[in-house]
Amino acid sequence: MGDRVSISFRKKEETYGGPTEAKTTLEESPALFHHWGGTELPKVAFRWFKKVKEDTEGKRSDPFTRLEPRNLMVQLIGTLAREKWDQYSTGTGKHDTWMTHSLYLGKDSADGDNSDNGHYTIDVDESRMYNDKGESIA
User: If we measure between CA atoms, which residue out of 24, 35, 45, 39 comes closest to residue 127?
Assistant: First the structure.
């Protein structure tokens, strides 16, 4: 029993192999899985992302302000921990700093269990969120 879900960030990246060899690749963060995240985790993550994008507009000097997907995931996890978002936190007694036991990372959306609610992808370029059927939901 659970309310499983996963999320990730993705962004198009321009790479240059030489003066005429520009190539566009799609960079995606590891997936964050949550056994009890339900549909709330994607909503929280998308609201957080929109605020980050607004706050960093015009500032593209480091991995975070360039909105690199892997860095966004690290910052999101840190924010979830600081703001104690997860009501299923294990932070009791001598382990007050522990996050929930039901969050974990996978290399992609198939590297864990998101069987209840599927996978959500936040598209950094479009500022949109998509479900695992490719439908834009935010």
Answer: 45
What tokens appear for 6 in the block?
Answer: 């996963």
Residue 98: DSSP 8-state:
-
> Looking up tokens 């936040």, which residue turns up?
122
Q: Tally Cβ neighbours within 10 Å of residue 46.
A: 18
Distance CA(109)–CA(91), nearest Å, equals: 27
Q: Which of 82, 11, 78, 76 is nearest to 49 (CA)?
A: 76
Per-residue pLDDT of the chain (138 residues; tens, 9 = 90+): 789 999 999 999 877 666 677 788 899 999 999 998 899 999 999 999 999 999 999 888 888 889 999 999 999 998 988 877 665 555 555 556 667 778 899 999 999 999 999 999 999 999 999 999 999 987
Please report, to the nearest 10 degrees, the dihedral formed by the alpha carbons of residues 124, 70, 75, 105 taken in order.
Answer: 110
CA distance 49 to 51: 5
- Give residue limits of the domains in the chain: 5-131
